[in-house]
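Lab notebook, design round three. We kept the backbone fixed and only want residue identities now. Task for the bench partner: fill in a sequence for the structure below.
Input structure tokens:
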């Protein structure tokens, strides 16, 4: 689906191959979603298709979106559930660093922009 010239059938393996092919000089937005994020997206798309399938019914049954890629936040508002697991293993998260040299503030600090804590590897 993402690269026609590969024999890889697993999304996470493809992400790794693309990352290695660019020697790590690639933004995460240029990679396909991980398996967990893709699964959550498929759940949301399936839920939306089920709603559209019922659109001509007078009183359609609309199931709760919870568990279908959505959750509720502290205020009770509907929020997208992007992934179920961790963004990366803890060992990998400890190796990430930002390159902002002054102080870690949004939007310049890539750690904070990605909802991560700055680590000892940051160049502060």
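Proposed sequence:
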């Amino acid at each position: 689906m993402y690269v026609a010239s590969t024999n890889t059938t697993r999304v996470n393996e493809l992400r790794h191959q693309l990352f290695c092919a660019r020697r790590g000089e690639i933004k995460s937005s240029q990679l396909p979603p991980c398996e967990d994020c893709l699964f959550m997206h498929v759940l949301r798309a399936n839920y939306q298709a089920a709603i559209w399938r019922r659109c001509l019914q007078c009183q359609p049954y609309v199931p709760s979106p919870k568990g279908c890629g959505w959750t509720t936040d502290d205020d009770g508002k509907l929020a997208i559930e992007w992934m179920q697991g961790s963004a990366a293993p803890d060992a990998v998260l400890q190796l990430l660093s930002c390159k902002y040299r002054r102080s870690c503030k949004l939007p310049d600090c890539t750690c904070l922009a990605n909802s991560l804590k700055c680590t000892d590897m940051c160049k502060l």
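Keep this in mind before ordering anything: Residues 48 and 108 are 35 Å apart (CA to CA).
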